[in-house]
Amino acid sequence: xxxxxxxxxxxxxxxxxxxxxxxxxxxxxxxxxxxxxxxxxxxxxxxxxxxxxxxxxxxxxxxxxxxxxxxxxxxxxxxxxxxxxxxxxxxxxxxxxxxxxxxxxxxxxxxxxxxxxxxxxxxxxxxxxxxxxxxxxxxxxxxxxxxxxxxxxxxxxxxxxxxxxxxxxxxxxxxxxxxxxxxxxxxxxxxxxxxxxxxxxxxxxxxxxxxxxxxxxxxxxxxxxxxxxxxxxxxxxxxxxxxxxxxxxxxxxxxxxxxxxxxxxxxxxxxxxxxxxxxxxxxxxxxxxxxxxxxxxxxxxxxxxxxxxxxxxxxxxxxxxxxxxxxxxxxxxxxxxxxxxxxxxxxxxxxxxxxxxxxxxxxxxxxxxxxxxxxxxxxxxxxxxxxxxxxxxxxxxxxxxxxxxxxxxxxxxxxxxxxxxxxxxxxxx
Amino acid sequence: xxxxxxxxxxxxxxxxxxxxxxxxxxxxxxxxxxxxxxxxxxxxxxxxxxxxxxxxxxxxxxxxxxxxxxxxxxxxxxxxxxxxxxxxxxxxxxxxxxxxxxxxxxxxxxxxxxxxxxxxxxxxxxxxxxxxxxxxxxxxxxxxxxxxxxxxxxxxxxxxxxxxxxxxxxxxxxxxxxxxxxxxxxxxxxxxxxxxxxxxxxxxxxxxxxxxxxxxxxxxxxxxxxxxxxxxxxxxxxxxxxxxxxxxxxxxxxxxxxxxxxxxxxxxxxxxxxxxxxxxxxxxxxxxxxxxxxxxxxxxxxxxxxxxxxxxxxxxxxxxxxxxxxxxxxxxxxxxxxxxxxxxxxxxxxxxxxxxxxxxxxxxxxxxxxxxxxxxxxxxxxxxxxxxxxxxxxxxxxxxxxxxx
Amino acid sequence: xxxxxxxxxxxxxxxxxxxxxxxxxxxxxxxxxxxxxxxxxxxxxxxxxxxxxxxxxxxxxxxxxxxxxxxxxxxxxxxxxxxxxxxxxxxxxxxxxxxxxxxxxxxxxxxxxxxxxxxxxxxxxxxxxxxxxxxxxxxxxxxxxxxxxxxxxxxxxxxxxxxxxxxxxxxxxxxxxxxxxxxxxxxxxxxxxxxxxxxxxxxxxxxxxxxxxxxxxxxxxxxxxxxxxx
Lengths: 429, 405, 230
What we know:
The complex is a heterotrimer. By secondary structure, chain A is of the alpha+beta class. Chain A is about 50% helix and about 15% strand. In chain A, strand 6 (about 180-185) and strand 7 (about 190-195) form a beta hairpin. In chain A, helix 13 (about 300-330) packs antiparallel against helix 15 (about 345-380) and helix 13 packs parallel to helix 16 (about 390-420). The longest helix of chain A has about 35 residues, at about 345-380. The two termini of chain C are about 25 Å apart.
């Protein structure tokens, strides 16, 4: 340990002696790390959603249709079959809201309308319908302004205020502070009260299952549904779309999610009783369980991570081979070091250090290369407009993995070269 | 076999260099595993990209009348009727609830046979709501029975069983054979009872990306919403652009300041899934290229090292009478033997990993053609990585055995 | 067997030219046992390399066993070397990855002999050298004397007509050295194999029938001088 500086210098000299060899080692490691990090970012997008909501938040769900679950299993859209369980009908929502048991509650569904800033032309606009409780339940962070409130909803007519998602604000207003501006939705004008802040590289829990083209949406109070007459994007069992909103609002088909905040104890039992009275399949699912269940990335991304993991293994073995070859070709020189008094441990440590140094330099370079790779990935796979981000967690994970990789690829050559007798290679053919 | 190809000695010498050689074998094996699965994924995404719809894609036109404010259903229906009348003068047209190749996802309908009570066999199919002229407008081939617009087929409104059109695969799954389906009744989760009037050749309206892409049930309905009406038309071959301009004029003709009209050709390339598929193919090609490049560069560097290490030895062989060609062949053979071992191990590992991978995504099937292609890639890169240093080795003169270089 | 006339070889390293051999003329008859002595740097190894077709020369003419080597390309030289010449090196030069059997077999592989004949010849020469017990051992597992015996076996397996030995006992102890010399004498006597042996040890050189010296790239044949003098 005392001689770490000296050993590092020796390692540096050794690496500089065959510059191209060292370049190949480092570059090989870097390229593998870059693609692995890219795969990690795609899977991180879905992971670690727990903590987005408090422990007293629930969603009303029903048992999913098993035929549907089986239909989607093993395909790219595996979780879709289970999504059918997430939707309740508007009459059910009314019944549950009427109990007054929840401290906060909200519907949550997306529809497609036409509109945009009043100053501009009307275009396709994704609209999310929620109650004011939405912002409290999901603890939504804001970039500008604030949410619409229960007070806004209770006055008659309800206050025509909306909230923009971060992505929509970027699309329509270039990311500037748009509070106070007017936005026209399906021919009706609304004032922008606030702009939400998107968590970097992470999907929001309420955005789960929303199609990419609808993630940039405007959040409108559900009180305006009768005016705007939305066409919910999802419904199960599917509603007849040609009946109009009023029919949909009476239909027993599930068209919206329903989230509630329930204090522990009586309230929860009572809500469960109400659900039981509606039908045998209804249940109350804790939000953290939802976050945990869907924190597995979709199948294509899981496969991508596996593939890049194998690439990383290949590069580790490649590194091991190259270190071994280099060490054996330097065997005579090592023999001299041993003859001059270097013990086995010193030789072992020096060789191990060489492997670790190459691996860490390669991983740093790989992290740097990952940034353009991730950008390219985002551009090529327009799967979600939430940008992939190389988060500090990913950086730390990668560095740790590469440290391990360096140790693994260094250990075998180090062991081989340290266990050879000093005289063996002196004067060898 | 040519005696100068020293297969036996090479194999025996491998036993004494187990460490270095087993690493090479392992690297080739893992690289092979990775490359085969990457190729499988590329093949799957490519297939999705070029998936045949079973519809005359290059003749289809999609038109939308989008309302700037929500419009009463009755008025929307009136607009639809007028539009369809105008459009049918130009080309067969129908209103549909979703445009072909939609980006948005949806849930399928659950179908069961009406009679034969106990047999609750559930078949999932994608519902397509459309006005009766849909078969002609989409270019659907009705094989048994009739389309939805034949004389005697009742209009969609009103109670009772709806006349429906099934695709072949759905008809088969529900009723055993496709022809037996005509005239039978079924129960559908989305609308109740249906009466099968016809069976059509399979088509994939929603593209190849959804499960059971060819399972469809076509239901007659006034496919309008309070926000827009979607139409699809089939232009005669080669006349699509003309039809687009005619339809634009026809739809704009009906004075409707509260609506926008968009008429476009059906374009697969702009759909989200086409972009996803092509993007995925590119990323996977890059990943596969990386693993081959890393292995190739490493092998090249190592082979050069190995030649330098064995300079004296090569000199001795030359002294003993080896020609330059024989030196080259020796190195190539050595590399070939190791690569072959690696590929054999890789084949076993790939089969194993494939089982795991298929549990995640069913269609990642390891087939012989992919394995062979991957083997070829590794054999070629192996040969290349050995060729360059081998030729350098051949230049080592015979006097390297005696004169110290 | 071997006829060199006015052979000259120059080494060029950068700007420096060294004449390794100057005007070297020598004739070695079939069955001769020749020793070559000289101080280091005198050109003995160069002479041996040229004699063994391991290296090229700049001036002069070299006829080996009736064949003028000047016109031969690399492949033809390799072939000729393989057929007619056997080498014994000071540092044995056995291929470390191959066992004894495979080492001895190498020249026969290049001669494209079929497997059965290769096997017969290798086993025959291993028996002659007393190496059968160690047939599958690696060079690293053998003593110096054993390794040199393997090298000799390898040199003999092709039944060469010319044997070139460069300090064959340089790395061996005295007893083993004598054994090797005995072996060489035996080979020379029984098979009429021409042997040219480079050595710095006068006692070993004395055992050859003809003694040559090399000095500054020129050959000195004391016997010929004596002959000329008398």
